[in-house]
């Protein structure tokens, strides 16, 4: 199965998956109430320091931001046009911090650990005869593969730039959709080979 997990024995790898997910969730709630862009700068430095603590492989993960460049520039442009540049800077910095924090959890947490951390949230479904593993697996897959899709788009954009000199284009949508569907097929085949959502085990 495709994985962005970085093998290692760092402090981040040793933290429980539930604690990491809870920290990102609480941090998201707090940061969404912050509107001053200067407050996000120390948060950004802290997140980058966490990547640096993983070594060179960790710092390479920061390249994921390239895939967000166009999106972030559009947000800033819209806020500049509407005369709310400071608010736009806060939105962009918030997105960067939260995206990097979520990706940090993905690269330092094994799929099985993430699934075990999410599974208790869906335990009440058992009262209605519904397996909690299927929605838990869905959430874990989204958390795991969202950064990977950003990597795919970033590679497509770099290839497009190398061939045409243009940074991006709407024409990238089609190959990105094809790559995403192909990846979903690969993941589905891998899950099927391991017994499906109920058979996924450590």
TrEMBL record:
The keyword Endoplasmic reticulum does not apply. It comes from the Bacteria. The keyword Transmembrane applies. InterPro entries: ABC/ECF_trnsptr_transmembrane. Keywords: Membrane, Transmembrane, Transmembrane helix. The chain crosses the membrane at residues 30-52, 64-82, 88-105. It is a multi-pass membrane protein. Its main location: membrane. It is found in: Membrane. Pfam families: CbiQ (PF02361). Belongs to the CbiQ family. This is Energy-coupling factor transporter transmembrane protein EcfT. It comes from Roseibium salinum.
